[in-house]
TrEMBL record:
This is Histidine phosphatase family protein. It comes from the Bacteria. GO terms for molecular function: phosphatase activity. The lineage of its organism: Bacteria, Pseudomonadati, Pseudomonadota, Alphaproteobacteria, Caulobacterales. Gene3D superfamilies: Phosphoglycerate mutase-like. It comes from Phenylobacterium montanum. Pfam families: His_Phos_1. Substrate binds at R6, H7, G8, R9, T10, T11, Y12, N13, R60. InterPro entries: His_Pase_superF_clade-1, His_PPase_superfam, PGM_Phosphatase.
Length: 195
């Protein structure tokens, strides 16, 4: 079993900036989302003993993981795994939609708001991104220990899509809430709201 969590809301989320491999701090709402998801997981799993907790190594996920683990109990820790990191956006990191269009006129032509990430100059391709996430997923499914993974918006969509065997376009159109967790078990994905 895997519980998948997205990091809490950040200042870049508020500003409409694409973070990719960069970071911005969690907002007050993001702090509350991280703690609420931790309380939800505490209700769902009880004791985290025997669980493996992993987070992307980016600051926003590490901060989320710390708050989440604090809700799970004293001394609960986590490890980082670079395979859970968000898609790298190369030259488009920290830019808004308008700034991307100004920097790379027409580069997103023929894309949607869900798949343009993979056109970023110097960014990561879908194939490379899905391969590293798929590697993590295969390891997690082969492991006898259940896991909690703290990751990102696009990464979470792709992970759930890989788990369900969805085509990339369908996987990328899934929602990516910051106030819920997803349970991946028995070939199904279930969204559980924290509120």
């Amino acid at each position: 079993m895997i519980y998948l969590v997205r990091h809490g809301r950040t200042t870049y989320n508020n500003e409409g900036r694409f973070q990719g491999g960069l970071d911005s701090p969690l907002t007050a709402l993001g702090l509350e989302q991280a703690s609420a998801n931790g309380r939800l997981l505490k209700r769902l799993i009880g004791s985290p003993e025997g669980w493996r907790i992993q987070a992307s190594p980016l600051g926003r996920t590490i901060h989320t993981a710390r708050l989440l683990c604090a809700e799970l109990g004293p001394g609960v820790g986590f490890e980082t795994d670079a395979r859970l990191a968000e898609v790298r956006l190369g030259e488009w990191e920290a830019l808004t939609d308008e700034e991307i269009e100004s920097a790379s006129p027409g580069a997103r032509a023929g894309t949607t708001r869900y798949d343009f990430f993979f056109r970023a100059p110097g960014g990561e391709t879908y194939e490379a991104f899905a391969a590293r996430l798929g590697d993590w997923l295969a390891e997690a499914q082969a492991d006898a220990k259940p896991r909690i993974a703290i990751s990102h918006g696009v990464a979470g969509r792709v992970l759930r899509g890989l788990y369900l065997g969805l085509e990339p376009a369908e996987a990328l159109r899934q929602e990516a809430p910051q106030d819920a967790v997803f349970r991946l078990a028995d070939g199904r994905v279930e969204k559980i709201a924290a509120g």
